[in-house]
Amino acid sequence: MENSIEKVECLIVGSGPAGYTAAIYASRADLKPVLYTGMQPGGQLTITTEVDNFPGYPNGTQGPKMMEDLEAQAKRFGTDVRFGMATKVDFSGPVHKVWIDDTKLIEAQTVIIATGASAKWLGLESEQRLNGYGVSACAVCDGFFFRGQDVAIVGGGDTAAEEASYLAKLCKKVYMIVRRDELRASKAMQHRVLNTPNIEMVFNAETLEIEGETGVTGARLRRVTTGEEFRLDITGFFVAIGHTPNSSIFKNWLDMDEGGYIKTIPGTSKTNVQGVFACGDIQDHIYRQAITAAGSGCMAALDAERYLATVHAAV
After folding, report:
1. Active site (annotated) includes residue 142
2. Residue 171 annotated to the active site
3. CA 25, CA 33: separation in Å to the nearest integer?
4. Do residues 274 and 307 make contact, with C-beta atoms less than 8 angstroms apart?
5. Where does a domain end: 193, 215, 239?
6. pLDDT digit string (tens) for 171-202?
7. Is the pTM of this model over 0.85?
8. Active-site entry in 10, 138, 171, 279
9. Catalytic residue flag (residue 138)
10. Quick check: helix, strand or coil at residue 9?
11. Residue in 10, 90, 142, 150 annotated catalytic
12. Given 10, 52, 102, 141, the catalytic residue
């Protein structure tokens, strides 16, 4: 393992809007960034079909196409884009060590973490098959496509309640599927959804299957209390049972909140370790949009550039 050591000025881990934007800015600043894509190059946007809310695309675009464009732009300015996954880190010294695929060791002066967060899913075959074809984990991203239609959303927490309220403004009817007999959401959010006329609560229910071949046509559910099966006639199915930040390898080194999201100094991308920066969904559990991720990627590259300038000045 120690035979394969590479020294770089700026290492970017992750390849969604945050990672690629950081790469564009870092390469233009002549930091010669090396970017490792992770196992899902392009991140969550590669499982999103239509992207209509990113500025500059008047007719919308496809998520995978946008990621291809961002990658091409980063490469155009000199970013070294590689396929591989960071599997271990050591941030104990002034030089930051990151192992790729357990074999290659990178010694980086700065590290930009853009590993994102993964949506939690129910684990149904039909859910994965129809993902992007009526099944979504982001109401803000995709709700617009279901204007005037009947949809369902799974989850009982604040996120599910917020997304149900958002969908209720666009859709004819929103079924909120909750496994328990009550919501986990805060009282204020409970009050909002329970008093929205076109949100119908479906308590004590679990989803067995999402129906449809090329798009969602319905959902088959089971009543947890009685075992009775029933069906909802819907064209959209939203999953809002939380996200898991991809932060496990940084746990012993970086400050995180109780959910595992990396903490950054407010107004910056700086972590508690000098020379290590975080951007995108790995440090943002509130907005989680492509445009906010891209903005924070820009911040991370600028912060890294300024950090390196002070290090070089001190030498």
Report:
1. yes
2. no
3. 10
4. yes
5. 239
6. 999 999 999 999 999 999 999 999 999 999 99
7. no
8. 138
9. yes
10. strand
11. 142
12. 141
